[in-house]
Amino acid sequence: MKDFEFHRPATIKDAIGLVNGREGAKFLAGGQSLLPVLKLELAEPSDLVSLAQLKELREIRVDGNKLLIGALATHDQVHRSPDVQRAIPALAALAGGIGDAQVRNRGTLGGSVAHADPAADYPAALLGFGATIVTDRRAIAADDFFTGLFATALEHGELVTSVAFPIPVRAAYMKFAHRASKYALVGVLVAETAAGVRVAVTGAGPKVFRLTAYEQALTGKLAASALDGIAVAATDFNSDAEASAEYRAHLVGVMAKRAVQALA
Ligand SMILES: Cc1cc2nc3c(=O)[nH]c(=O)nc-3n(C[C@H](O)[C@H](O)[C@H](O)COP(=O)(O)OP(=O)(O)OC[C@H]3O[C@@H](n4cnc5c(N)ncnc54)[C@H](O)[C@@H]3O)c2cc1C
Fold first, then answer.
1. Cβ of residue 26 lying under 6 Å from some atom of ligand 1
2. What number is the average pLDDT over the span 41-53?
3. Measured in angstroms, how far is the CA atom of residue 108 from the centroid of ligand 1?
4. Is the pLDDT of residue 220 over 90?
């Protein structure tokens, strides 16, 4: 790991100022993705700006028909929050299935969203629920946020402050997890929302995506049998030692049906 300057600002304004003033600077949240990246020397930031002091970014609350979760809320806080469990139980369950206890106690919603790992769980929730990512300068619809492999619409120095989740009628998330890390080999979130049925898939391709063929089929009939016979093309799907692209395409169908059956 290369040397860097470490900063621990007390305000959001200072944190943003520190990163914006330095081309090579990065925010540090839970460190569960960034520190492995640094150890592997896949990134060599000049400065790390810790968000740890910014307690106001940990808030979780329901506001009308939206669930608002601060960017610094840890996966464990989201999993255990009574507000999340009441408003969107599928989201509480998703957070509880991330990694292990150590990862859940350090890793944050904002860090996961900004990192945009193609096998991460939260991106499926953001896209599946039609969430809005709120930053220090704008609000970005999840449909416009995830732009590619580890790539998002965020600009340098743009801080994710919270995510607003519209509360769905019902939803479920099912993943086929990597045996060690628990990242999704394939994860599918199905949500019946005020705007219609949404289906989001993570782990299968280079970035999270919506499966419109499934959405259309489930709009007519919200039952697992509605997905019978709808082929999922493995084109551009990930292929690695854990699963081929074709196996992932098969898993998309299996996980989607399980999610529909589990809708609550
Ligand atoms: C062993 C292991 C198993 C894991 N298993 C899973 C799993 O099953 N499912 C899953 O989804 N994830 C998994 N993860 C990843 C984990 O969820 C991370 O917590 C998450 O990806 C990053 O969150 P973080 O808070 O640790 O971010 P960090 O590592 O601190 O930062 C990640 C990136 O986001 C940027 N960043 C952080 N916060 C903000 C912000 N508020 N605004 C803008 N940019 C920001 C940083 O600059 C950095 O580029 C696993 C990680 C490990 C180590």
1. yes
2. 96
3. 6
4. no
Beta carbons of 90 and 167 less than 8 angstroms apart = no
What type of residue sits at position 189?
L
The pick from 4, 33, 175 for probing ligand 1's pocket by mutation, whose C-beta has the most ligand atoms within 8 angstroms, reads 33
**Alpha-helix residue ranges (DSSP H) falling in 4-108:** 12-20, 34-39, 75-80, 82-87, 89-96, 101-106
- The order of strands in the sheet holding 209-210 is 170-177, 184-193, 196-202, 209-210
Q: For 193, list phi and psi in degrees, rounded to 5.
A: -115, 170
Residue 97: CB atoms within 10 Å: 17
In this prediction, residue 1 carries a pLDDT of 82
Record the pTM.
0.97
Ligand 1 proximity of 245 Cβ (cutoff 6 Å) = no
| CA dist 246 → 230, 234, 240, 242 (Å) | 15, 5, 11, 12
